[in-house]
Design a protein that fits this description.
The protein is α+β, with helices and mostly antiparallel strands. It is about 25% helix and about 35% strand. It has one domain: Roll (SH3 type barrels). The protein contains three helices and five strands; from the N terminus they run αββαβαββ. Strands 4-3-2-1-5 form a five-stranded antiparallel sheet. A hairpin with a 5-residue loop joins strand 1 and strand 2.
């Protein structure tokens, strides 16, 4: 997917901090939230996205620890869907 397609899907206020399914070309679907931290614009310009998986969302909301997130390349996304 392109940066524009991904941003268009995750930008609406109702989807911010909501869990989404991220479908990939060659791996299992990941459920999690896209997070916007200090490097968001830099990563977005490279079609890279910081995601906190479903297992770590509660801890992320409490601690805001970047080690709980992973960076994914948007090119490998096939689609995004709501949980």
């Amino acid at each position: 997917m392109t940066t524009e397609q991904i941003e268009k899907f995750i930008t609406p206020d109702k989807r911010k901090e909501n869990k989404l399914n991220i479908h990939f070309k060659d791996r299992q679907t990941v459920t999690g939230i896209f997070i916007q931290v200090s490097d968001y614009e830099e990563l977005k310009s490279k079609n890279l996205w910081r995601v906190v998986s479903n297992n770590n969302v509660t801890e992320w909301q409490q601690r805001k620890d970047l080690n709980l997130s992973r960076i994914f390349n948007g090119i490998s996304f096939t689609r995004l869907s709501e949980v």
